[in-house]
Every structure is written in structure tokens, then in C-alpha cells.
């Protein structure tokens, strides 16, 4: 469901904010549309836990870009879901080579991860009197994760609304755009300052590497997440 489908129903939003490129762009998107924006991160024992540590720097950086954004940026929340790591045996939560499974999904797939995230997000939003959830799910150039699909998100919004008796809206501003367009959206929302902030402070690499700086940011440069981010950057700013 995109912003174009429905105007905001309340003045507050909760952004699923992991500290990566996509969720940082979603945070900026929400800050242009809602008068109060809270953020939520999940700790599930991911190998790229370094992304959680980027969140504070990104929030501070984004507040510096615009006085209006500073005013709108509300509380930050972190929820620990250790059970997710315990029940899923994937390359995201254990030391293993990232590879494709026989079913065509990469072994970074954590089954139902977004379903759990959205359920926890809605439970928190309920308590915070927030109806609008914002997430960076995308089915354009994703890795085939079925819980990123628009149909999944729509069904989830309906299930959460019925199950909690609240009219939740799940906004997915990146659903139909690719990584290059995500960089362009960041530029539209926050200019070069936001693009630079995302390059320097956001984290994408599945292996949690931040050693090597590339034009598009830090990472190993080889895992699927790094390759996707690099390819998008090169379509956004073609190399000389
Ligand atoms: Zn990487």
C-alpha cells in the first residue's frame, strides 16, 4: 500500500527503522508527511547487528537536515526478538556462506520475519495511539522474499486491523521502486545532505562489515545486499 492509496489517517507514524538505506529513506519520507514520527528497531541476533548501532547516528543526522524534521522526530524504540534467531537457521543469523537455496530463495531468508516485525510494530503502535506504520518492504529488486510482497503487506494490514480492532495503514513507499530510485527519492526528500548521510551512516551489508568505504557507503562489496546497493548507486550516479 503506498501513500497515494490513502492519505495519512492520523498525525503520527511509526517507522520500522533498521538503520539501512531503505528504512532511512522511509524515515525521511515519514518526516515529510506526519507531525510526529517514532522509530522502531529489532534485535534478533542478526549478523549485521552493526546496523542497530547506526540508528542513533542516523536519527541525529536526519534531525540536523531540517528543523521541521527535528521537531517531528519522536521516540526511538528497540524490541528484542531473540526467538527469531533461535527458530530460524539462516545465513543472516549464523556464520554461513550466503548462497541460494534449492527453492530459489537466498539462505538469508528468515521465514516470516516481516510478519513478526509488523505484528510487534502494530502492538507498539496500538499502545502509542499510532495507526500509520511505515516500512521499507519492496518487491521491485528484492531477493524474492515473499514477506516483502505487496499482497503480503496488504493482508497483514487487514489481519492487524481486525485482530487489534484498529484501522492500521501500512505505508510502503519503496514497494514499486528500485534501488536507484530509492537513492533519487532520498535526494528529493532531503537533498545531497540526506544522500550523504545515508552513504556514510546507514548500514546494508549482510556480513556486518564496515571496513571498506565505497562510493555508496561501507560494506564487504560482495554479499547480495552490498551488490544491490552498489548497482543502484551506479544507476543513480553513473561512474565516470
Ligand atoms: Zn556486504
Order of helices and strands: EHEHHEHHEHEHEEH
What overall geometry do the principal axes of the alpha carbons give? Answer: globular
Helix content: 40-55%
Rg from alpha-carbon coordinates:
17 Å
The CATH architecture can be given as: 3-Layer(aba) Sandwich
Low-pLDDT stretches: 1-9
How would you write the strand order of the largest sheet? 3-2-1-4-5
Total strands: 7
Give a short account of the largest sheet.
5 strands, parallel
Count of all domains: 1
Strand content: 5-15%
Please report the distance between the alpha carbons of the first and last residues.
Answer: 37 Å
The secondary-structure class comes to alpha/beta
Query: At the third CATH level, what is the topology name?
Result: Rossmann fold
Mean pLDDT: 87
Bound molecules: zinc ion
Number of helices: 8
Q: What is the assigned CATH homologous superfamily?
A: HUPs
CATH class group: Alpha Beta
Topology:
Layout lengths: L11 E5 L4 H11 L4 E8 L6 H16 L1 H6 E8 L1 H6 L25 H15 L4 E3 L15 H15 L4 E3 L7 H23 L11 E2 L2 E2 L5 H13 L4
Parallel strand pairs: 1-2, 1-4, 2-3, 4-5
Antiparallel strand pairs: 6-7
Helix pairs in contact: 1-7, 2-7, 5-6, 7-8
This protein binds zinc ion (ZN).
The site of zinc ion has 10 residues, from helix 8.
Describe what this molecule looks like in 3D.
The chain has 240 residues and is an alpha/beta fold. It has helices spanning 21-31, 50-65, 67-72, 82-87, 113-127, 150-164, 179-201, 224-236, and strands spanning 12-16, 36-43, 73-80, 132-134, 169-171, 213-214, 217-218. The protein has one domain: Rossmann fold (3-Layer(aba) Sandwich), CATH 3.40.50. Helix content is 44%, strand content 13%. A five-stranded parallel sheet has the order 3-2-1-4-5, with helices on both faces. A two-stranded antiparallel sheet has the order 6-7. Strand 1, helix 1 (21-31) and strand 2 (36-43) form a beta-alpha-beta unit. The longest helix has 23 residues, at 179-201. The protein is globular, with a radius of gyration of 17 Å. The relative contact order is 0.17. Zinc ion (ZN) binds at residues 205-207, 209, 219-220, 222-223, 225-226. Residues 205-207, 209, 219-220, 222-223, 225-226 line the site of zinc ion.
